[in-house]
Fold each of these.
Amino acid sequence: MDLFDKCEVNLGPLGMYADRAEGYYMFPKLEGEISNKMMFQGKERLIWSLNNYLGLANNPEVRKADAQAAADWGMAYPMGARMMSGQTKYHEELEQQLADFVGRPASYLLNYGYQGMVSIISTMVNRNDVIVYDSEAHACIIDGMRLHFGKRFVYPHNDMQNLETQLKRATKMVEKTGGGILLITEGVYGMAGDLGNLPAIVALKDKYDFRILIDDAHGFGTMGPSGAGTDEHFGVQDKIDLYFGTFAKSMAGIGGFVAGDEKVIKFLKYNMRSQIFAKSLPMPMVIGAMKRLEMLRNDPSHREKLWTVVNALQKGLKDAGMNIGATESPVTPVLLSGGVAEATQITYDLRENYNIFCSIVVYPVVPKGTILLRLIPTAVHTLDDVDYTIETFRKIKKKLDNKEYASEMKVMH
């Protein structure tokens, strides 16, 4: 069999829908200025699918800083990996600012969030170490663990009793191997919007010897009194050993960082192959990230606007009889009953007849028979947007309950 034969025979669980879904349900093209309303296939739509939580993506101050940095430095500087020729004082300044903000002694910049988490995991553990992780871990965590040659144990999502069982198993194993235990959780789970049970997890440190790595991609900038993250929200910053945040959401940029004790960050700095052998983050992205962080730290109005919209949307949906699960974050899932056919028709109806664009999630990401419509409120949404969306979802749910959606997937041309 030729290696490439599988590319035609089996496109995978998502690719199997490519011919009918690409360009509309998958790989859609949103055009225009990043905001609460954008263009999709020639029509203006109300957009609920961008992780632009604080509305910084198109903020005039941010755009000015980005443009000035690009004019001053270009996109090439600095050339080379940081270890060889790509180090600058600005990279170091951003790292210290990030560390100060999330309450850690040190931090290290990462070129990409996804790749960064993969690399943190593969660098921190060896074959003698054991990983314990939540069953709803993000794909970057799963991919990072695939590079781990040692054992890993999974616990059902936020099941603290089972987590303790897995910690007992892991403890017995490392007593034999001489390794350590890394527990990986998320701060905010990006599909359901619920929070990792950080207080219960850190309490287990009194009984077991392990370190905690938190992926707080959706919590950084949105959670906690100052926006410093989900661990700040719970008041357990001093108990979380490694904190990971990304620039791709609240910071509306590219890159990420990991923060922790100086000795651990130094170890990562000298051993993370994805950073050692990759070009340094370009200067406009570094300067731009510093501007975004400055605004995040010094202007709470962005976060206040976000939570005004979040609270109105989530309360309104619940009052309208919608199931929004156990979200405690801006991520707002709307859970409905149905399969892929109903899901595509609902999405089509929302986009074409109500001009609402939101993300659709079906099996295998969620259980069979479940449709998840994920809404991402931002600081640039309005309360009018909220009211219109709630009323629209009332109509959609009524149609679904009355079995008005066809059983055939809508074909886009």
Note: The longest helix spans residues 301-319.
Amino acid sequence: MLGKVVVHSIEALVSDAEAASYLRRMVQVIGCSPEQLAVDIYRDVKPLGNFLTTKHTMDHFRKELWDPQVTCRKSFSSWVQGGKTLSMKSKIRKYIETRLDQHQSPDMPDTFYEAFDQRVGEKS
């Protein structure tokens, strides 16, 4: 999107990246290995059993979740009852500010700056 100049704000870029992340997760292939299918667990749990407390579920469930960075997962009524604390726009702005505050530029070798200064001097 940046390459084609169709993004008009950093907020739009973050929102689009969130949507792309969600879509990437939704089209991911569902694993069918013996470990992922956990056939042995079905035998152990039996009908009407509880899979949530098994070690297998604890070991694997986080890999299957999609964790949004800016999207609100509450229902509309829960969001309203919670005081409508953050709009999508303000949540995205807060996310951007946090990321910018946490960003640390990589150290560049002196040779990079020398080469850069030389190239800029050639263009002038």
Note: The helical segments are 10-26, 34-37, 39-45, 55-64, 76-81, 88-102, 110-123.
Amino acid sequence: MEKDRNFILSKINLLLIAIGFIIIVIGFFLMTGSTTTIDFNPDIFSTRRITVGPMISFFGFLFIIFAILFKPKKDK
């Protein structure tokens, strides 16, 4: 017996949310790096950690908002 399942989000929405999540993880990965507590490491002020990583993560969060609000066209 098959039940008619009506989900709020369609498959395309869930796929777009997964892509946004992957973009966020990539941004956080770009912000990470090796840290040492003994010596000062000037790499903590690199452009990749301060600018690129947060911008990619922010884009991922915006993409997830778009993915939730996206309404696929109905086929007739």
Note: Helices lie at 11-31, 47-69.
Amino acid sequence: MPVTAAIRALRAAGVAYTEHPYEYEEKGGTAVSSRKLGVEEHSVVKTLVMEDDRKKPMIVLMHGDRDVSTKELARAIGAKSVAPCSPEGAHRHSGYIVGGISPFGTRHPMSIYMEGTILDLPKIYINGGRRGFLVGIRPGDVARILSPVPLRVAI
């Protein structure tokens, strides 16, 4: 298994997790990873790097089968607008390439927001810092390590 910055961060935090490699498909998204791992897409969590109108980057954690209402997110955080970062911007802020972005072990600290209903799941699957590599983890452990702000911005 790969030892990524995300894995090093999880080990340093003493968090229990399971490793789930799969064959990555370009632009396959969570539909592909959930199918290949045999889990519900709702429990596969996307790590999205976004930025507000002042170009301040943030991470948004969202269910794989849902999208982020950028209008609701902007309203919730007091910004005029929020938009996804370019792939280059996401890499610059996180240190990861698109398709392999993990919220753990990012290059630069960023505010982290999480769709609140993710906390209701018994286990989630989230990127481990490399394309084709997810980790299974309890949402409570994610909340403890990252201290995300829970929001309701799914559509």
Note: The chain has five helices and eight strands.
